[in-house]
Amino acid sequence: MTSQAGLVAYPLKGSYWAFAYQWSTLKLTFATGSTWPTSDACRQVQHSTAIALVTQTQYTFSMKSAVIPQIRVEPELRAELESVLKQGETLTDFVEATVRNAIAFRRVQTSFHARAQAASEEYHRTGVSVPVEAVLERLQSKLDAKRKKLGR
After folding, report:
1. Rounded CA separation 147/141 (Å)
2. How far apart are CA 99 and CA 95, in angstroms?
3. What is the rounded distance in angstroms from the CA atom of residue 57 to the CA atom of residue 19?
């Protein structure tokens, strides 16, 4: 949340909702500059109520709308899953985080495979390769540098 000269703005997917106090009106302003005056009943709103209104609006517009299909599992797997949830973490939070991590892993894996395929094709085309010793030396130096950085 950012605040400047009576303007409070909440980030929202590259844009923001904002509200500003004026003497007679309270307006909700979208980042594009479109302004919607609130009703007369809302003109006398307290600061905390205005924050709640903007927060609710942000929540409503940023709600997730897509659904991942449900899956059936054995009761033992469900119990094991519930046993590893962190304090306050829901099953939905866990599943969403797991899916995001799996997507990131697959992207890294696909990228690695593409680079390996390109290197193999380059070798078969030119016959030029890097000696194993040179590769191992480079990997060892990277490992040593990381260990030094971490203080191990």
Report:
1. 10
2. 6
3. 11
pLDDT digits (tens, 9 = 90+) for 10-45: 444 444 444 443 333 444 443 444 444 444 444 444
Q: In the numeric block, which tokens belong to residue 20?
A: 């500003």
- Residue the block writes with tokens 């995001």: 100
**Using CA atoms in the order 49, 51, 55, 58, what is the torsion angle rounded to 10 degrees?**
120
pTM: 0.50
Q: Specify the residue for token string 């094991």.
A: 80
The whole-angstrom separation of Cα 147 and Cα 94 is: 31
Read off the tokens for 56.
């609710």
> For residues 2 and 85, what is the distance between their CA atoms, to the nearest angstrom?
33
Distance CA 42, CA 99 (A): 42
Asked whether the beta carbons of 4 and 16 are under 8 A apart, the reply is no
pLDDT tens for 93-138 read 999 999 999 999 999 999 999 999 999 999 999 999 999 999 999 9
The helix (H) or strand (E) run that includes residue 72 is: none
- Residue 8 has a CB neighbour count (10 Å cut-off) of 18
